[in-house]
Amino acid sequence: MTQRNMEARTLRGMLERGEQVVLVDVRKREEYAQGSIPGSVTFDAYDALKAKDGRAMDGLELPEDARVVTFCNRGYSGAVAAEQLRQRGYQAFSLEGGLEAWKGL
């Protein structure tokens, strides 16, 4: 079985070691502007993900071999986003507990 979630502590360790990972914040742009994980990019797909739009992540350009971690505030929309990216062939994980878990480190 493929691992689908990543703990905040694991992600922090990867970033501290300089491992290549693309962080995708799927929250609304206004929320992203108020603060996010350093180095993340914004892709405002929150409403589409919440509405269960199977094409919510269409339009996100990523390197083919990218390891991707998606996140929202608490984790649900980030998990849906990661699943859509996995279906497109990416090595994608969702940040378990979302930005709230990251802030709790």
How does this structure look, described?
By secondary structure, this protein is α/β, with parallel strands linked by helices. It is built from 5 helices and 5 strands. It has one domain (5-103): 3-Layer(aba) Sandwich (Oxidized Rhodanese, domain 1), CATH 3.40.250.10. It is 35% helix and 17% strand. A 5-stranded parallel sheet has the order 1-5-4-2-3. The model has no long low-confidence stretch (mean pLDDT 95).
Task: Give a quick summary of the entry.
The chain has 105 residues and is an alpha/beta fold. It has five helices and five strands; from the N terminus they run βαβαβαβαβα.
Radius of gyration: 12 Å
Low-confidence stretches: none
Q: Determine the strand fraction and express it as a percent band.
A: 15-25%
Average pLDDT for all residues: 95
What is the name of the CATH superfamily?
Rhodanese-like domain
Shape: globular
Give me the CATH architecture, please.
3-Layer(aba) Sandwich
Q: How many separate helices? A: 5
Strand pairing plus helix content: what structural class? alpha/beta
Number of strands: 5
Terminal CA distance reads 28 Å
Please indicate the count of domains.
1
CATH topology: Oxidized Rhodanese, domain 1
Percent in helix? 25-40%
Order of helices and strands: EHEHEHEHEH
Largest sheet, described in full? 5 strands, parallel
